[in-house]
What we know:
With 288 residues, the chain is α+β, with helices and mostly antiparallel strands. The protein folds into 2 domains: 3-91, Phosphorylase Kinase, domain 1, CATH 3.30.200; 100-286, Aminoglycoside 3'-phosphotransferase, Chain: A, domain 2, CATH 3.90.1200.10. It is built from 9 helices and 11 strands. Strands 1-2-3-5-4 form a 5-stranded antiparallel sheet, sandwiched between helices. Strands 6-7 form a two-stranded antiparallel sheet. It has a two-stranded antiparallel sheet with strand order 8-11. A hairpin with a 3-residue loop joins strand 2 and strand 3 (40-46). Helix 3 (100-115) packs parallel to helix 7 (236-245) and helix 8 packs antiparallel against helix 9.
Amino acid sequence: xxxxxxxxxxxxxxTKIIEIRPISGxxxxxxxxxxxxxxxxxxxxxxxxxAFKMFQAERSGLKALRETxxxxxxxxxxxxxxxxGALLIMEFVETKTPTSFDFERLGHQLATLHRxxxxxxxxxxxxxxxxxxxxxxxxxxxxVDFYVSERLLPQLRLAQDSGKxxxxxxxxxxxxxxxxxxxFPEVQPALLHGDLWGGNFLIASDGRPYLIDPAVxxxxxxxxxxxxxxxxxxxxxxxxxxxxxxxxxxxxxxxRDVYQxxxxxxxxxxxxQSYKSSAKHILGKYFN
Length: 288
């Protein structure tokens, strides 16, 4: 950490920093544990022109999740612009390796989060980010229309514009909508974490589950579950506990593919061609 940023943080926190320890796991930002004279803090720094907007969106998402009082969410203490980039400071959560019981607790609490919403529309009051990519959240009363226009089409067009997909490899909006209509049930909007891979939950030392780094919006609860299965990191007890609260519905495995497609396209756009074959497989399977 740059010494000028360290001194700036000390001024913001009104205390001296005794120790700075880098924390691994972030693809976008640099993360640190800050030990001060009074307590420990978690700090993220991102040196990009969009950093302050990204951290403001993250703060908003964490606040929305925290207000449900269903699952642990770290408290955001500071969100500040820097000369180059921005910083986000939160309470520090001491973690441990999850046990089977911890995963069951996480599953129950995530399902409770998903059932807590009384929203009538899909989307969110503001746009936010998935990784470093903008995520549009224009609200819609129709889940298929929202998912096609706000999730699939923007990523497909971005992939086409950057040459990662050919125009001939991209289905029409009509075809996307038709396929989704055939697969999607009637959906009640649920408040989603929005990017729930294995690096975006913590188990505190006392066993309490926490969610971090959200990309929140109101959508189908199965979207969060689809993301948990894309890269692994969740044991089967997590899913059993979740489905004790919210039952499986017909065609959920096909929808899982279609919901994972969004995240695969995001990764294609962020990280390149290694994700192309997975994207093409799902596009060919459901949208031909």
